[in-house]
Amino acid sequence: MKLQSQLNAAFTALLLVIMTTAGYIIYSLILDLLIQDEKRQLAETGELLVSFLNEQYNNDVNNYQNINDFLQEQDLQLFLYDRNLDTVLFSTMNISVVNEFFQQNNFANNDEFLWQYGSDRFVTSRIIFSPEQTGLELILLTPMHDLQVVQQNFFVRLLLVFLVGAVAAVILSYFMTNKLVTPLSQLKTELKKVENRQFDRMSRVKATGEIKEVEQSVYEMAQTLEQYMKSQQTFFQNASHELKTPLMTIQGYAEGIRDGIFDEKDTEKGLEVMVTEVNRLKGIINEMILLAKLDTDPAEYSPFPLEADQFIHQVVDRAHPIVNEEGIELNHQVENGVILFADEEKLLRALLNIVFNGIRHSKSTVNIQVYTKDHKVMIDVEDDGSGITEEDAEHIFHRFVKGKDGETGLGLAIARAIIEQAGGNISVSNSEIGGAKFTIQLPKYQSTNHNRQKPKQLPK
Q1: What region holds the Histidine kinase domain (predicted)?
Q2: The CATH fold of domain 3-151
């Protein structure tokens, strides 16, 4: 069963339950209200009669024998009852009916207002003549059947109103559920496009409330998935290119040496080139394996508190040989007391990749600065090279994206993966000293009283 049919069925069932319950309660209340209203009307009618008779006969008890003719003229069902004698003095009904009433009901009980006559019941109202010492009461009756007819007529009309309201509610429910389900059906169609990778054919679905939030999430998921698939496609294309180039070089020299087309000098040169290309292949493969581990195995990352000052000294010491070789000035400034919480080996590799990238592209200076800002540990690495374009900045952290003088195109991708695994992020912009500026944000280390770790002492 479709969702819209299920919603309509559930709403209709709920409506029937509510209407049935309400109808039963109203049906019961109607009869009670009719009985109370009938008692009130009988009391008003009786009081008028008693008041008239008291005035007409001047409260003369002997004259009450003369009221029979007057009461007989009234189109009412009534008794003139003498409480003192416990007898019916007069009734507008025949003697057999009076006797039946007298046998089945207790006329002396003032609390009983519903009397029985055969299988029928009557609503009664009692009005006492004044003075009360006379013991005379006028008892008026109305058959319950008359009230039940009114009750049934009222309920039939109420039922018609309920039916009209129910039909209107069901129709309204159909349109409302249709409005609710239609975006879901459209969303299902869009998800099929995602399944079939038809990202360019996707369109936005008009919706409101939680469905709009789901639609937004699906659309963002599709965009992310499209970008991921494109990046994977680009990755495989670049990876195949990066691996194919050294393999073709190795193959060319190997075939030349095998066929003897090289002399001794060229053969030696070819072997050196082959060894170089093999080492290059090993470096690419190792970095690809590292990236795969960073993406798939969080257990490979073991964070520990580190003193930032000693950690940066390690970076500077590792970069010292290449700095001297390139004739570059490497400056560093670390705020006192800063503690990093990261995997030492991996963060060291990430920062060295960024520093080496800055050294390759700088003219004379590379600066490293560590400080805290907004409860974050900030690490800036900037150079005075030619800077970076906006287009390159969007893709510089992608795999196998190499800038000028780049090596494998994996160094910055590895750095980003390590930094994100540490709960941080990295961005690039143009530096005030002319080159590129890489900014790393890491969470500030928060030690707890119950689990306090001392910063790891790094070798100086």
Answers
A1: 238-446
A2: Beta-Lactamase (3.30.450)
